[in-house]
Design goal:
8-stranded parallel barrel, two-stranded antiparallel sheet, 38% helix
Length: 321
Amino acid sequence: MTSLSPQSSPRSEPQPTPESSPPSSLSRIRIGSAPDSWGVWFPDDPRQVPWQRFLDEVSGSGYEWIELGPYGYLPTDPAVLREETARRGLTVSAGTVFTGLHRGPEVWDATWEHVADIAALTQAMGAKHLVVIPAFWRDDKTGAVLEDSTLTPTQWRSLTAQTERLAHEVRERFGLRIVVHPHADTHIDSEENVTRFLDATDSSLVSLCLDTGHYAYCGGDSVKLIETYGERIGYLHLKQVDPLVLASVRAEELPFGPAVARGVMCEPPSGVPALEPVLAAAQQLGVDLFAIVEQDMYPCPPDKPLPIARRTRAFLRSCGV
């Protein structure tokens, strides 16, 4: 595995925000965090913190909800995972799967084999959502181009049809709702591609996991998307981008992995988009939504995530959640 050395541009350290007296109550928003905010991208990697430490620290930071992260990082035995999470006051909000559904029906069997195990664990943990991330068109570490960055009309039809099929099967077999996650260096990234995908899929089957950082990374406006496609927003990932680092990433055409190592995803509230308007827009939808904090930091020193998590949770309390 290629080593990515984190770098950072000079900036002042974000200051903790007092936890008392939030300005308003965003009662429909449930805040959580994920292994990603502890530098966890893979089921097993010596540079990642052990799963026990992640659970201890995410609970100690004031979060009550977590995602499963990469399948195999947390225990896959539901009885073990239930015991480990319950004694720390944690509950699972979602599992995550990676797919390449634009490649057509021929990838269905392999996709379902991957999805079924994760969906079963997600269901067993009492969660109701499955976050679906599209395949990368270039390698996130080496930058090698794996396929064209633009889908053909046939590939778009395969992507939408196979995603609807996945949504139907996951709902019928596991009682879960899929939420598709626009992501940098995938075919569902920019405002143009996100809205094209939403317009071409059945709203009763397919919802969106709006990741505020990835959408900003790709030039999108999260508040505008919530206000325009509110009925399709089924889940949130809260994340911010450092605009100065992003400018250099774009100028150098860096793939996503090296961009993260450079610090493109930063600690709130020092980046964009501002999270207060996003949360306010989400609250206006009048539905219960998970808002899971993710600050991509792979790889990172093991002692770095906990102080950031505590400050971020305090900042979000000051926003009213």
